Task: inverse folding
């Protein structure tokens, strides 16, 4: 099981390894619009555990520009381990 810590809500949730971040993030209040990686509404900041996420998609690269700690929750999955995010 993987774990997501939502800094904004101070809540930890467990998810399946390989799960997309879309649903868990939406359940915790991250706003979504297109869910295709083109609008940037679901931008999150990964403060810990970036190595536990899948690689950047082309859509993320186009929307986010300078990425560093940013991801689109509709475009990435948690491979395993723990991540800490804010939105």
Result:
């Amino acid at each position: 099981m993987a774990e997501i810590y939502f800094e904004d809500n101070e809540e930890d949730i467990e998810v399946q390894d390989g799960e997309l971040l879309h649903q868990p993030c939406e359940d915790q209040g991250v706003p979504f619009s297109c869910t295709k990686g083109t609008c940037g509404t679901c931008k999150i900041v990964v403060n810990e555990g970036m190595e536990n996420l899948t690689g950047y998609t082309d859509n993320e690269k186009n929307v986010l520009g300078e990425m560093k700690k940013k991801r689109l929750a509709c475009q990435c999955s948690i491979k395993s381990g723990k991540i800490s995010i804010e939105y």
The helical segments are 22-27, 58-64. The chain has a mean pLDDT of 96. The first helix runs from residue 22 to 27.
